[in-house]
Amino acid sequence: MRKITNPRQLAVITLNELDATGDFLREVLDSHLRQNNLNSLDQGLYTEIVYGTVRMRRSLDYVLSLHSSRKPEAIKPVILNILRSAVYQILFLDRVPPRATVNEAVKLARMFGHEGIAKFTNGVLRQVVRQRENIEYPSEEADLVEHIGVKYSFPSWIVEEWLSWLGKDETIALCQALNESPQMSVRVNTLKTTVEELRAYFAEKGITSRPGKFAPDILDASPAHLVITDDALKEGLYYVQDESSCLAAHALQVEPGQRVYDLCSAPGGKTTHIAQLMGDRGQIIAFDVNPSRLRLVRENAERLGTTIVETQVGDATEPMELAPADRVLVDAPCSGLGTMGHRPDIRWRKDSQDIRKLAGLQKEILRVAANYVAPEGLLLYSTCTLTRQENQEVAEWFLQNHPEFTEFSFPSWFPPSEEQSWMRTFLPHRHGVDGFFLACFRKHGI
Q: In percent, how much of the chain has pLDDT > 90?
């Protein structure tokens, strides 16, 4: 098959594939990057167009509806994706001249359609260019949910959830933060190197790095393409992981020699971090219901140089015969809304019914997990989402229904919060990290 060298053409092909298959954005994009011949600059443009078009889809469709005689739902999908991707470039990519964007889109419309479609595309996009400084979004006064949802491109149900929880100003700030290009963070593998040594190594490789905002073993690093292709990653000197996710292992407050269960472990980022914090001394059993995903845990453990991680197939909702553990981690299946900066397609994959189902699943896993915790042991509940139903309400339900547990405070160096000392929500607009939730419980002694 002929390799594609035009980043805009490849972006449209990728967007069409996402619509047709429902596959995850990152996987489809990486596949196309491997299969085609884009230089480094074009790889960046291609990635930005795809991520941005997916992220801002609702807003783009609204702008198109203002300037097209046809509603977006009436436009052939491939042409709609040409228009969406072009409008994204016109509105959000300052470095791309609007005239060039329009011309390229017209060529693609001719390639995927015919001359009539090309003229339609040209007319719509020229209108957008002329009016791009004067777009009027739905009135904030008339319908705040619609205003925020359309302007910042989020489903209304998410906006409603955040407005009732955070209020108007913080909801807008959260939406804006999740629409920004995310910072790449890496966890330094202190079993093999130190933070100072890795920073010096990065500098030699042309990678800029700085300490993370909170965790002592985190570096923010750029440019991302050098970070993910460097040999040191393959050798296990570091692991790509957002800082909020790394705080989970610190919250578990492990000690060398302990027994730890990670009940939903794949792909193993938190599992291997726990091993690192234990100095690779003790026992960690990593469970997952999917055997193929456990293979990722084993591969990561081997690459990172830890020897104390064992893997075992297990359904976290079904009781297992296990000896009591000093620490138990429930990194629960969740809606993932806190990761929308890295994974913008999530916002279009979930709905409010999913949240209710996931909250029920999370409670079931915690109910079972409580049986595995030794007296005086800790149980940590974590999610990478930002809904009260999956986070605060689940944590409070657990305490109400498990009197053998009480709250347990996080390390003193954790970022301050208005929440209670045993519960912490990390918000992108406040903390500059992915959205994440932690709650820590201690089992009473005998």
A: 89
Query: CA–CA separation, 81 vs 84, rounded Å?
Result: 5
Cβ–Cβ under 8 Å, residues 285 and 312: yes
Q: Domains for the chain: give ranges and CATH numbers.
A: 7-131 (1.10.940.10), 144-178 (no CATH), 185-240 (3.30.70.1170), 244-443 (3.40.50.150)
Lowest mean pLDDT among 11-25, 246-260, 355-369: 11-25
Residues 388-432: pLDDT tens digits?
999 999 999 999 999 999 999 999 999 888 888 899 999 999 999
Q: Half-sphere exposure of residue 155, counting CA atoms within 13 Å on the CB side?
A: 15
**pTM of the predicted model over 0.85:** yes
Other CB atoms within a 10 A radius of the CB of residue 200 amount to 12
Report in angstroms the alpha-carbon separations of 352 from 153, 233, 262, 271, 390. Answer: 17, 38, 28, 30, 11
Nearest to 183 by CA among 237, 221, 217, 227: 221
User: Per-residue pLDDT for 336 more than 90?
Assistant: yes
Ramachandran bin of 149, using left for φ above 0, alpha for ψ from -120 to 50, beta for the remaining angles: alpha
**pLDDT tens-digit series, residues 264-316:** 999 999 999 999 999 999 999 999 999 999 999 999 999 999 999 999 999 99
Task: Report the pLDDT value the prediction gives residue 10, as an integer from 0 to 100.
Answer: 95
* pLDDT per residue as tens digits for the range 217-268: 999 999 888 898 899 999 999 999 999 999 999 999 999 999 999 999 999 9
Of residues 373, 393, 370, the one with CA closest to residue 383: 393
- Asked if the bond preceding 267 is cis, omega within 30° of 0, the reply is yes
List b or e across 217-240, with b for residues whose CB sees 16 or more CB atoms inside 10 angstroms.
Answer: bbbbbeebebbeebebeeebbbbe
Closest CA to 419 of 434, 438, 406: 438
Query: DSSP code of 139?
Result: P
What does the alpha-carbon distance between residue 188 and residue 165 come to, in Å, rounded to a whole number?
Answer: 35
Q: Contact, 442 vs 377, CB < 8 A? A: yes
Backbone angles phi, psi at 153, to 5 degrees: 65, 60
Query: What is the torsion angle, in degrees rounded to the nearest 10, for the CA atoms of residue 340, residue 345, residue 348 and residue 353?
Result: -60
Residue 175 designated active-site = no
Rounded Cα distance, 343 and 17, in Å: 16
Phi, psi of 394 (to 5 degrees): -65, -45
Catalytic residue among 264, 334, 384, 440: 384
As a whole number of angstroms, the distance between CA 80 and CA 83 comes to 5
Distance set, CA 108 to CA 53, 121, 173, 332 (Å): 16, 9, 36, 43
